[in-house]
Specification:
The chain is an alpha+beta fold and 191 residues long. It contains three helices and twelve strands; from the N terminus they run αββαβββββββαβββ. The protein is 23% helix and 29% strand.
Length: 191
Amino acid sequence: MDSGQHASHKRSGFFGGLLKFVGLIVVVIALSFGLRTFVFQAYEIPSGSMEETIQTGDMVFAEKVSYYMRDVEQGDIVTFNDPLSPGRVLIKRVIAVGGQTVDINDEDGCVYVDGEPLAEPYTDGLPSYRLENSIANVTYPYTVPEEELWVMGDNRINSQDSRYFGSIDEDSVTGRGVLIYWPLDHFGLLE
C-alpha cells in the first residue's frame, strides 16, 4: 500500500466515523423530541398553587400516554396550556368534567360537585372560596360545558384556577402529573 492510498483510507475512516457520530446525534435528538412530544414532559413548579401536594421548585414528570387511551378524569392532576398566557403551562387538579355542576359554598368552604361535597384531603384542610375578581364572571352553581374541565389548585387560598379564568378546553391538556422526581426528599407518585 503506497502512502497516497494510506492517507485516502485514513480520510475515509475519519469521515465515516464523523458521519456515524452525526447520525447518532440526529437519532438522539429525534428520540428526545418524540419522547417529549408524545410520552412525557418534565416541568419545574414555579408557584405554590398546588402545595402541599407539590412544592414550589419541585420537578415533576407529566405523562401523555394514558390520555391516548382514556379521558381525563375527576381527581387527575393535569398540566395544560394557560388560557391567559400562551406558551405557559399550568398544573392543577381536575375537580369536574364536562356535564358536572360545581358549586362553592363560602360559608363552609366546601366544593360541591353535582350537589355532593368533595372529600379533599389534598387541600390540607384549607377552605375553598369563590373569587370576587374572576375575569370569567363565573356564576355558581356552574355546569361545566362538554369537552371542558374545571380545575383548581390544591392550595385554594393561593391559586388562580377555574374560579378565576373559567373552565378549560380538554384539548389544552398536555399531560397527567404522575411523579415528583426532584428534590429527592419529595420523590414520589402524585395522587
